[in-house]
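Summary for the lay section of the report: proteins are chains of building blocks that fold into shapes. Here we show the chain for histidine kinase and then a coded description of the shape we predicted for it.
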Amino acid sequence: MGRHFVIKKFCYICFWCLLFVFNSPVLGTEKVTLHLKWFHQFQFAGYYAAFEKGYYKEAGLDVEILESTIGIKGIHEKVIQSTGQYGIGSNELIKERYAGKPIVVLAVIFQHSPSVLFFKKSSNIQSIHDLVGKRVMLTPHMDEIVAYLKKERIDLSDLQILEHRFNPNDLIQGKVDAYSGYSTTQAYDFKKAGFPYVAYSPRVAGIDFYGDNFFTSEEEVRKHPERVKAFREASLRGWQYAMSHQEEIVDLIYEKYSKRNPKERLLFEAEQMTPLIQPILVEMGYMNPGRWKHINEVYAELGMLPRNINLKGFVYDPNPPANYEWIYYSFGIIVFSLAAVWLVQWKRLNKQYSENLKKQVEIRTEELKHSNEYLQVLNQSLLNTLKELTEAQDRLLASEKLAVLGQLAAGMAHELNTPLGAIVSSNHSLGDFLNNKIINIMDTIVNFDKEDSLRFHIVLEEGLKNQTFLEGKTERSIKKDLASKFSNIEKMDLYGKHMQLVVETGAYRIGDGLTQILESENSLKILETVASITTAYRSNQIIFVASEKATHVIKALKSYLVSDKDISNGETMVDLTFEMDTILSLYHYNLNKVIIKKSYLTEKKCLGNRDKLNQVWINLLNNALQAMSYNGTLEIKIQWVEPWVKVSIIDTGIGIADSIKEKIFDPFFTTKPNGEGMGLGLDICKKIISQTGGKIELENVEKGTCFSVWLPSAKT
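The coded shape description reads as follows.
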């Protein structure tokens, strides 16, 4: 009895020691190093805030922040060289990962890259295609600019590439024709110098990359997961503080880190970063694996990376799924221990049986009693374990639902960013017109004589008729025709101001009447005045169209999110046509290359839970888009098949193999690569439809896949 007590006590102590080792927090202060990719400035404000506000110290971290004087060069090698190293990179990280460097992206700070290409506003470069043959300074590793040029079919060999000296005076003094930089910093230098400039962003060509990506090595994540998580959370907390207290952090940077930039420039940088980081619309540090795949696709289209590279382990997951292997190991140990105990007991009882049958019966009876009590305790323990596993399965189902909704929300910021960006840009143009130009325009018009006033009204009327934007190739063709037709008029030089303004105002459409305009001594003033007015009119039209688009997206999102009060109490009537159109509006960001075919053959409503049915449509639409790689034809058919309302979603994707058709509705069955799906989507859809009293089927089609949902119709 004493020996059994000692063994039991020893096992008890070992168990609690192991539990303490595996669950104890990081003790003491751990040294880590953060490598910035440029000089100290507001671009890295969040890390200064986390350090100065004590967020790193609270997490048990001693952080050293190192600035770079040579850009991003060498940072990747330093980070993967040893543990405890972190860095700030750009979108080149995906290329470095493909090249074999074990890099892990922890968080994204800029939801949109600030990289732009600057031109002088009054130069002969009026479009991106006019760069051919010109002198250009390109920042190393600014891949989004290179991708932008290639997408516009401009090869680097067509340009005069000069070494980037990071001196804005190179563009101001005309030493270079185009200059790549950040809209958050170089724009200040140009405005401060009174230099008129034009900034072209790769986003106008659909190249929307991340900016300033926070990364470390696979070894750091594997060996020090708690440190990685603590450092990431403290850094993002610092960013949240920095963006909410910009003036305070500007003073901090200037006083403690660097006086290289004046406070005015740092505050300008902070203001320009706000729409790029979007701290209110998007969770700080958020990144979407689908967005990284989009970046991979852009690189692939331009020959800079292969398609569909393996991104497993590249994107950090701060909340990985729970690991329940210890439950199975514990259960196995218990079973093995029971077997060992039973074997020992059996041998001992067999020996005692031969000596004293009566004593053996009494002992065995007593042992069976204790064994029965022990088995009751074990049975209760197994029931508790089963309950935990059931709860874990419910959490997995909820996680799948959130993952589906997360994919829907991923594109909302981009859908709203384009019209809002157009409104902001056009508003600046209108503000400049009202504040700086309108008085001069009024004075100019008043001083026109009767003939010049007539000429002005003719050009203005033509300029307001058509506000269509001319592409570079079309514009050059029009200029050549005008130069040939009016070769006898000295003013119509191919690269002169008159020629540019005639095209910009649309005066070339006047025909022979253009000669009368050009004969006036005030022809240049007439054209410049009309150009200013038409530019303001165009900005007004852009604001109108962009506002309509943003309003449409917000109404669709509101309609999708706001549920009827009756839904929580049970089934209600659902307008499938309205709900499907609402979801398609929200998915507009992913439908650029998809042809949508709507076949709404009935107006009958069905019975069901609107929110849950919307989850079904989102899941089926998302599967269809992924099967087509977001390029093909998607047909949505709603028809009346008495007594059902039948909804069919048909795509032209790769289809489903016959060998797995019977398994697609099984839970945890998936054909997607590891990390891209848990295989619960179709299982959830089937359960939702079954609860409604309907059914979901996979129907045969010539090409692609067709999922049909049969729902009970509502009585109207």
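Put simply, here is one thing we learned. The two ends are 79 Å apart (CA to CA).
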